[in-house]
Amino acid sequence: MFTRRRTFAAKKGTLRGWRENVAVPLTGQVIPMIAVLGALAAPLLRIVGDNENFGFEFSGPPETGKTTSLKIMASVSGNPANVPTFNATLAAFEDRFQEFNDAPYPVDEANLADRGGPAFVKDFAFSMANGRARETRFSKDRTACRFVFGSSSNRPFYECLISSNAYVADAALQRLFPLVIDNDAELGVFDHLPNGFASSGELATHLKDAMEAHYGAPLQHLLKRLVEARASNAEALRMQIEKKIAVFELEVGVAATARGKSRASTAFGLLYAAGCFAQLHDILPKDWECRAACVEAYHRYRSGLPTLKSWRERIGEVLKRPQTLDLRQSDLKPLNDEEVASHGAFIRSGVKGRVELLLSDRLQQAIFPDWRSLMQSADFATQVKRSKEHTTVHRQIRSNVKRERVVCIVLPPEIDGG
Question: Are 169 and 161 in contact (CB under 8 A)?
């Protein structure tokens, strides 16, 4: 049922040692829990008949725990010291597909957005999702390999893709799911410090030492239990997993229609199913709230991707930002360049009673990375004011500068900026 080469798979220590020293401190830590659940979900892909893999990209500033998350993922099935890095060609990664069959396939130091441009990013996401090595004169084996992959980067890969092709970016985002670590997150990838730990660094060091002593046992135990369950009643096992996916999709509000579902909702639901099965067989701590972690991660995934929301929804979020400055409330005030950049958005009264939302270039790029494709829609383009030779207009937003160029969006009647 499950076949995998043994070059990456390895075991050291005990399942109990891994559970108590690695998994227990990760209780309530959303991204590290997703790393574990993603690893455990890999063999479930084959059981539910999924013909595509999926993966997670942990992105954020340096020294925030991205590599730690990938090593946590790797520790489920093998030695975390042997995590592949991106110092290889795409063909080299494809050559190792069989090695990670029915297992997690983490790749550290990816920095996808900075390596090779949009074409490389696209090829990586689709090749890993496909799970089939390209046929060459030396290798004719194109067996489909099922795995859950992971990568790390300093900035999300979709920022590179969206600037060139919004449709390709959207397709890639249904295969490689970015989970962004906030720049202001004091503990980096961790959501809290468990009792007995004074800092995130101390927790990371503990996990590193624990994973050096205990690794590989969780997936071995899971595979054994899956084989037993499938031998007993394969259809019942598949239905059990699909029921958990349905429960998750109902929780996140996409189960009402088939159209509402997506590869992403099904993938996160599969992680929840893997967690339930693992807890049933004492692989994961009973205190892990797997569904809550998957729901939170799914919402983080969606909230971090502006292109998954309509432009009206995005404008609504800009208007609710505490930094957005309403210029209608008082006379203009002097602002330095740093203060203007911090605000990023300004609400201003225009002619004929209209209300304008003015954006800095930086905020516009962050909120509307798909600006080019949006401008092809009359619904959006008619709301954007622009001069003949520029995509921006001149407006005054501070008393100490007469006029400066800003992006100007006229708010629709149903969104008046308060």
Answer: yes
